[in-house]
């Protein structure tokens, strides 16, 4: 078992309080960074650690920090993405409520590395309690001299403000987040320019996920080598897996990146009630689903990519044999239809049509041609839009048909859902689907 | 009518955090909703005026974010997560249980103005699914039995005229805005 980076002390009483964090040598890394290292040394150390972003895309963190302009007189901003909206993901909430100071310390270190004096934590609006806990933790850090002017007696000043979102999944996308932070609609921006050039309020900005920041103090304290050695060749450290669905012991688990899906499921007590496994969504709703035969794949970014899925946000959803995959895909696609910001026609129309098509098949009105339409629709969405949301929609749409085609065909041939349904009520969003518009003229 | 002094004070306390005035828009909307439970046309005007923004800019933001209620909601807003992990764990049963008990469909408010029922997307509580948000508070790991107890309890609180139902963390963490 490798060391725990983030969750080692979270089971202690009041683990979120600063006394507890300080007791475990908290804020020593930020002090050492500010007083003894240069910004470039910090970036180098993070590069060597092979830390990759935990928000979904897995971008190398040290490299992202190095993109920030060095000799610019412009104000720079550091932004923490605590929007946590990807269905099946609930690990940032654990960090915020149990170990917020690790995230704050990671932000201090990052601010020093990129030369930012202001940081924002963009937290999803539904997290009322979490936002208050975060305000509490930030005020503790301020009172203890870890935020504010001339930190640790140096020239470096840094403070953090909490900004609450208001219920829009798309605001997790970093440029939509930046627009939202500016008090606008959360519509993603065209890139380039990237946030490192033109970010929050038009200034160079660096956006990282909660878990990414929370891993940084460990890297400084224990050394990049140790962190890198815990992971794979290209990806260092451990990861927080949020395991939910039909699993015996759901929850957040900090485990090595090298664990396989099978091992992870076993670690969590297996499929609930001893039922047979049918499918796994390994990295939040947008990650293409895998079938029970695929679960020997390891959970690191590259292995899952090779298996045709993605590590995404670390939200692992376990689905047992009783579930109708078509019905589940309907739930997911309705989510995307609801959350598309509507800027790009491919995504706005495509997510709507997909939701309708899947519902038609589920209701028994589908045809074999619909399956081809799904594939061609997805082909016209992925990679064709301002942001990766459209790609995300195609994850569940394409993978469900690819991995469980027989089940779709069964619905089509039998003209009904072959699953005895104990899930009769699928909500009002579903019941509105009646007249399905023609989708042949895509 | 103008924005309340409390709201103005809260906004002024935040002003130094941002380089633009528009950044205060979403906080302002949150504060108004906390006070009035929804964002009326009147409130939109007040906010626009206070932050020197065109009306359309405020309106387009209000309509973008699902948390901003554009019509009045009940004293207790039941928000049932029906996304995938909650669905796998029985959220449809919870939804029908509430609908039957209150005699309303999703998106509706009871005639007495006590309850509004909504369906919401993933609340990031999937490990303790199914989850419901009651005003501000999360209730997790529910089943029909526990839900019934919760609804009984909410009935009692409403009957007793309790203020700030479902807002436990306001007392728990007093610091901040
Ligand atoms: C549709 C969409 C939703 C996203 N939601 C989140 C989110 O909720 N939280 C998050 O940290 N990143 C999210 N991301 C990824 C961010 O755009 C960005 O890559 C990330 O915050 C960068 O941080 P990292 O490098 O530390 O991972 C989302 C991306 C897309 C396309
Ligand atoms: S699916 Fe309901 S909280 Fe995530």
Describe how the helices and strands are arranged:
The complex is a heterodimer of chains A (442) and B (177).
Chain A: H1 18-23, H2 28-36, H3 39-48, H4 61-66, E1 77-82, H5 91-98, H6 100-114, E2 118-123, H7 128-143, E3 159-164, H8 174-181, E4 205-209, H9 210-222, H10 224-230, E5 238-245, E6 251-256, H11 261-267, E7 277-281, E8 290-291, H12 301-306, E9 315-320, H13 325-339, H14 345-362, H15 368-379, H16 389-403, H17 405-414, H18 428-431
Parallel strand pairs in A: 1-2, 1-4, 2-3, 5-9
Antiparallel strand pairs in A: 5-6, 7-8, 7-9
Chain B: H1 5-14, H2 25-36, H3 41-50, H4 55-64, E1 76-81, H5 84-88, H6 91-102, E2 115-120, E3 132-134, E4 137-139, H7 144-159, H8 168-172
Parallel strand pairs in B: 1-2
Antiparallel strand pairs in B: 1-3, 3-4
Bound molecules: flavin mononucleotide and FE2/S2 (inorganic) cluster.
The most extensive contact between chains is: A-B, 69 and 59 residues
Enumerate how many helices of chain B there are, as a single number. 8
Estimate what percentage of residues of chain B fall within beta strands. Answer: 5-15%
Helix and strand run of chain A: HHHHEHHEHEHEHHEEHEEHEHHHHHH
State the assembly state of the protein chains.
Answer: heterodimer
Main structural class of chain B: alpha+beta
Task: Spell the H/E element sequence of chain B.
Answer: HHHHEHHEEEHH
